[in-house]
């Protein structure tokens, strides 16, 4: 199948690479990190649902493999986790995002960036120091950065996660609970997390305009989040109908292909200056 023409379709999103593939991928990923080639961050706007203006971006990692072409993070992030590369990879992402924030700021664009954090990074003892280093190196205030952690990741070791989040909060860095609704958070834990934001998973957003049960869940989640003082972001908004329903329910921010796909940094800047705002 390797000989097949379309390399981009080689890994379906849900496909787990076989053991041999995974070993090859981790070797190539290690090389990509060492030589700093092939890795890139794309940025997807989050839109303030009331004003229609951009309120920040989410950084999404892209890897252009020398032979395979684009490999999805759904494939290579788990490989990095499995082979102990996620610490270095995550560090690269945070540093690159801070570097980009600095470039934008120097050209007059004050941006806020959300970075995805893997559960494995939460166990890294020097995570907070590394984040602090990146902020300092590029002279970026912690308040400009949010970490998105999936609900299930935060739940894996609640006590340890809580300690990390509290130390990040001391740097001014905020926390967002990603993919909300797909895990099993206890509400009392959610209350104790120093999170500012909750992201409703795309699977609910997808059906929010067409199915009553999804609508009921989303409405309840928004109410709950607001009662806890959290802002709510809906991810994966693709249609005007979804946008309308979510706006009516008081969802604070919207993100999805309806507004913009993830894009390279310079495109983002053009997008913000052009019809994006
Ligand atoms: P996620 O954090 O839930 O990110 C949202 C995913 O949905 C992204 O896929 C994004 O491109 C996609 N998306 C955004 N809007 C829409 C939409 O309207 N419709 C549809 N169908 N999709 C939309 P992507 O970039 O392939 O990333 C997939 C996952 O890989 C992310 O899910 C995240 O879990 C992980 N990931 C990406 N970058 C990083 C990273 O830097 N570090 C870590 N640890 N994980 C990352
Ligand atoms: Ca995310
Ligand atoms: Ca998400
Ligand atoms: Ca998701």
The hetero molecules present are: ligand C2E, calcium ion
**Average of pLDDT:** 91
Number of E-state strands: 9
H/E element sequence:
HEEEHHEHHEHHEHEHHEHEH
Distance between the termini: 45 Å
- Residues in β-strands, percent: 15-25%
Portion of residues within helices: 40-55%
User: What is the radius of gyration?
Assistant: 19 Å
Largest sheet: 8 strands, mixed, barrel
GO molecular function: cyclic-guanylate-specific phosphodiesterase activity
Keywords: Membrane, Transmembrane, Transmembrane helix
Domain EAL: 22-276
Protein name: Diguanylate cyclase (GGDEF)-like protein
Task: Explain what this protein looks like in three dimensions.
This protein is α/β, with parallel strands linked by helices and about 280 residues long. The chain is about 45% helix and about 20% strand. The protein contains twelve helices and nine strands. An eight-stranded mixed beta barrel has the order 1-2-4-5-6-7-8-9, surrounded by five helices. The relative contact order is 0.12. One calcium ion binds next to strand 6. Ligand C2E binds near residues 72, 179 and 236.
């Amino acid at each position: 199948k390797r000989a097949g023409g379309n390399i981009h379709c080689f890994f379906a999103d849900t496909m787990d690479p076989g053991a041999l593939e995974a070993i090859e991928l981790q070797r190539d990923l290690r090389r990509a990190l060492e030589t700093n080639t092939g890795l890139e961050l794309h940025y997807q706007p989050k839109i303030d649902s009331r004003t229609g203006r951009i309120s920040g971006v989410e950084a999404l990692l892209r890897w252009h493999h020398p032979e395979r072409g684009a490999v999805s993070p759904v494939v290579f992030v788990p490989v990095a986790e499995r082979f102990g590369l996620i610490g270095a990879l995550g560090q690269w992402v945070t540093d690159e995002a801070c570097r980009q924030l600095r470039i934008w700021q120097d050209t007059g664009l004050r941006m806020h960036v959300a970075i995805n954090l893997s559960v494995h990074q939460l166990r890294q003892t020097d995570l907070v120091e590394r984040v602090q280093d990146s902020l300092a190196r590029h002279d970026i205030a912690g308040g400009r950065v949010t970490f998105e952690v999936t609900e299930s990741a935060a739940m894996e070791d609640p006590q340890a996660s809580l300690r990390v989040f509290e130390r990040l909060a001391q740097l001014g860095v905020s926390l967002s609970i990603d993919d909300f609704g797909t895990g099993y958070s206890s509400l009392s834990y959610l209350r104790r997390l120093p999170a500012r934001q909750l992201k409703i998973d795309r699977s609910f957003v997808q059906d929010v305009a067409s199915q009553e049960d999804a609508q009921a869940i989303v409405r309840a989640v928004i109410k709950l989040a607001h009662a806890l003082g959290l802002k709510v972001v809906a991810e994966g908004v693709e249609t005007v109908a979804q946008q309308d329903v979510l706006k009516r329910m008081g969802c604070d921010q919207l993100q999805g292909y309806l507004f913009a796909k993830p894009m390279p940094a310079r495109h983002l800047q053009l997008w913000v200056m052009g019809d994006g705002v």
